[in-house]
């Protein structure tokens, strides 16, 4: 591959690549630039030129309007969901890989069938269920379905990983008299850390960006999560476009931070099991 | 595992047996209650009359007949077909080319790859809001250039809105698929390219006879995710246009939401949901069939 590239540079490829860079960058450039504009300048200045009088007013307005609360709601929902997803999926995966009974094989098949369920198609019964359980308009209402729909893909990825743990390791631990809890904590957990990291990142992004469940299962601003808050800011600030875009910019900062810290892990988490 | 069980028949000490079933119970409980049960529930609700507040009442097959006969449903179905097909025709080639492009080890390509990744930092709601503002005919991109050049009302024109939405959805999802293709290309053994070079194959021939056949599994995975994903896609379209102008971008998932949660007709909305599940499953099955035969063809092409 190296040699092929050295022969002649691919000018057409580079040009095409550059075109997509422009397509990608312009909206983001516009986003950041506009968020730094004064509200009145937004109507006058060229949207693609830097503001004559840059200001952080828009950001101040957003922060004064409960942005931190929405951010912490999103954090609570994401952390709680991912913690439960990882715990129950790991426990289930240990059983599904090591039990080797007809029951465990049937269970695995049932769970993997769940990969084919489109979340969007179930919103009406989920709404009904949440209302009946008295959980409507609470953070728990967002966490429960998020966990449920995460289980098939999480179990798939973790099962594939646990399967690669050599059987002798399980056998020698059992010979030493270790119980299943101990095997799970001292053997399965440490050896499946890469899979847990992948699943954790993938599901954290899914939950963090989720819009549909918050839209139908919550109402009050006290339980509003970030993606939904962007939509309501748009109604609230209406003509103050710089403020709306400041909120959008702020909402991307946590993921940007994760991207800077662990780009490789984020990329592998994003593509989850699909890359293979 | 099997011979082990035979070697130790019916050991009374639990620690010696395989892990107990209860380890799977929490996962199954969540999955069963909030994923499987709603899937069955939506089928039941599609035969009921419910306004979202009171108690659902049995109404029978009438709801199905009415909803399927409704021209609005048929229009939404056709719009969804256009949305899915055009989205695929836009996203698949761009993602494939970008994946191949960023798989190269040149410095500038690595730098480009970082920029390509940026849309993935944003939620669908965020992307929708940015593009709504950017595509505004009065204050958006249109004003950046001399008057009139770009002052089309992309999201407000019923003839253009669906295609504008398709472009924005592509902007949001191409990076993900490009990552899949990049990973796929990097797994192709370099020796194949060396052999092709020795045979005098040019860049296009290498792409056609080495890269494409080697990427067949990635193509199947990415295409399935793309097609089934855009069939049920909701978030970005909802924030961008809310289904408008008129019904111009009211694809099936939006039609379902608006029918259920805005018009409070949960019965017809459930019918649409069942349609979505059925079409999605049929599409997945069809794709795995087609890719089964396509796989053999591309192998032959690769060997020829």
Please explain how this structure is put together.
Chain A: This is ABC transporter permease. Chain A: The chain crosses the membrane at residues 12-32, 75-97, 109-130, 142-162, 183-205, 237-261. Chain A: It is found in: Cell membrane. Chain A: Belongs to the binding-protein-dependent transport system permease family. Chain A: It holds the Pfam family BPD_transp_1. The complex is a heterodimer of chains A (276) and B (304). Chain A has 276 residues and is mainly alpha-helical. Chain A folds into 2 domains: 2-60, no CATH class; 68-237, MetI-like fold (Orthogonal Bundle), CATH 1.10.3720. Chain A contains 15 helices and no strands. Chain A has helices spanning 2-7, 11-35, 39-42, 57-64, 67-98, 102-113, 123-132, 139-162, 167-175, 180-191, 193-209, 212-217, 226-237, 241-261, 263-271. In chain A, helix 2 packs across helix 14, helix 13 runs antiparallel to helix 14 and helix 14 crosses helix 15 (263-271). The two termini of chain A are 21 Å apart. Chain B is mainly alpha-helical. Chain B has a two-stranded antiparallel ribbon with strand order 1-2. The model of chain B is unreliable at 1-15 and 293-304 (pLDDT under 50). The longest helix of chain B has 38 residues, at 266-303. Chain B has 13 helices and 2 strands, in the order H-H-E-E-H-H-H-H-H-H-H-H-H-H-H. Chain B has a single domain (44-303), classed as MetI-like (MetI-like fold, Orthogonal Bundle). Classes of the chains: A mainly alpha (276), B mainly alpha (304). At the A-B interface, helix 1, helix 2, helix 5, helix 6 and helix 7 of A face helix 1, helix 2, helix 4, helix 5 and helix 6 of B.
